[in-house]
Amino acid sequence: MSDAFASPGRPMAVLLPPRAPEPIGFPRLTWRHGLFFVVAAVLIASMATAQTPPAQPPASAAEALSTAPATPFSVIIKWSPLLLKGFAFNIVISIAAMTLGTVTGVILGLGQISVNPIVRKVSWFLTQFFRNSPWLVLLFFAMFMIPFQFNIFGVIMPFPDWVKAIIGFALPVMANVSELLRGAIRSIPNGQWEAATSLGFTRTQTIWQIVLPQCVKRMLPPWMNLYSLITMATVLASVVGVTEMLTLTAQVHAAEGGRPELFAPLYGFAGFCFFLYCYPIGKLTQRLERRFNVKT
Amino acid sequence: MATAPTADAAPAWTPDQPIVSVRDVHKSFGGFEVLKGVSMDVKKGEAICIIGPSGSGKSTLIRCINALVEVTKGSILVEGQEVNDPKLDQLALRRKVGMVFQQYNLFPHKTALQNVMMAPINVLKQDKREVEERARKLIAKVRLTGKENSYPGELSGGQQQRVAIARSLCMRPDVMLFDEVTAALDPETVKEVLVTIRELAEEGMTCILVTHEMKFARDVADHIYFTDKGVIVEHAPPAEFFDNAKDERTKTFLGQIL
């Protein structure tokens, strides 16, 4: 109610709640999180130690120095630039898949509420088909159905594996966004449509100017949740040979001689990176959900 | 029922003819007949109140007038234009007929001023500056100066309803439809909305109201229609209607309400 909230030109007005809100900060890491990480690290380290083969007494001091296996920690430090580069690639794939999936999903979702019955049925079928298929199946589907290059009017467009992976991940995103959008549109009270119609808005104008802007707010939390899920699913791309973080982790493990005690720390590091990235997104989603639940 | 039929009115409409002419309108939802042959005439500048028990088809009737609901049978003429015509120019109809709803139905993602300006700019493609000037005047008219940049969620029910009235007026309609516009409001805020409507009626706007505010109907309306079970049971000027009701159903209803 305060005048501070009545200032014109507020950015992203649709994201704002109808009543004075508490500020939403980005989730901050506290000592609790620190404690959680310490416990996790101790667990992983103890697993690593448990798996270490009993040390052979070194024949000589010199030999001990030259062959002393690197500690798991130093291995991670040594390879972290490469592993983090792989992780960055996961992020790139997830963002690209989410973007592509959202754009196509919005089109498909609008198709689901089309007045044309054929468009509606086809959109419904595509949505259901891709929503109810395992992500890994869709990934294989994209990998092996899409040719490695396209010939468009004489211009040869290569389609490397990682581009196909993006398409593979975009398919379930598309179907889920389509369904999210359909649900969000249905949740807009009928009165909004009536009011718009009585003011002379056409159906298309009503959808774009009145219904969709309101859907953004409703869709944002589940959409972020979907993003977080797809980010974690990008490691599936290692199955089809894309050199993302998990592939690199396996390679690093092999390069270090495949020592079993390195298994937990290396994969733990990968998991930890995803946790650090996805946990704040999940927290933020929760806060947005709580805020948007406030009734007007 | 109503006055002599003028349904055969030529397309050329003159202001001395009824601005809204409803002839033997039937409406069914599924197998349920909500309107069973309703006729009424509204002259330009008149304020008409439709009263009656809930479920008697009042809201459906006024929704038919601006083609939000399609009639099953019968004819509705607005300024000589047949509403029940498949080739109807809906935009032309909707700029003539404004409507205000029980639940306000403001667009929650737009400020009060934007709500008022949206349709003239986006639908009628009018000049933005001219529309803004008009919108600010209308907001002042409904006594909401200072609330231009508030979002609907920041306004009280009565304030929202007045914004909704301004939003409708900004299309410069010839007829205003009010569908139980005070039914969702607190008793204290009902008055501020009724004052606004009364002013409109006094300025000569043609108003068709569905209402449960009997005192208001008596003070403001030129003519009262009483509906029950999909038909118009009785209609008369307010003084006669309230003091001298002829039909038993009207008497029972008034007895329960007054």
Automatic annotation (TrEMBL), chain B:
InterPro entries: AAA+_ATPase, ABC_ATPase_HisP-typ, ABC_transporter-like_ATP-bd, ABC_transporter-like_CS, MetN_ABC_transporter-like, P-loop_NTPase. The keyword Membrane applies. Keywords: Amino-acid transport, ATP-binding, Cell membrane, Membrane, Nucleotide-binding, Transport. PROSITE patterns: ABC_TRANSPORTER_1 (PS00211), ABC_TRANSPORTER_2 (PS50893). SMART domains: AAA (SM00382). Its main location: membrane. GO terms for cellular component: plasma membrane. It holds the Pfam family ABC_tran. Residues 20-254 form the ABC transporter domain. It is found in: Cell membrane. It is a peripheral membrane protein. One of its GO terms (molecular function) is ATP hydrolysis activity. Belongs to the ABC transporter superfamily. This is Amino acid ABC transporter ATP-binding protein.
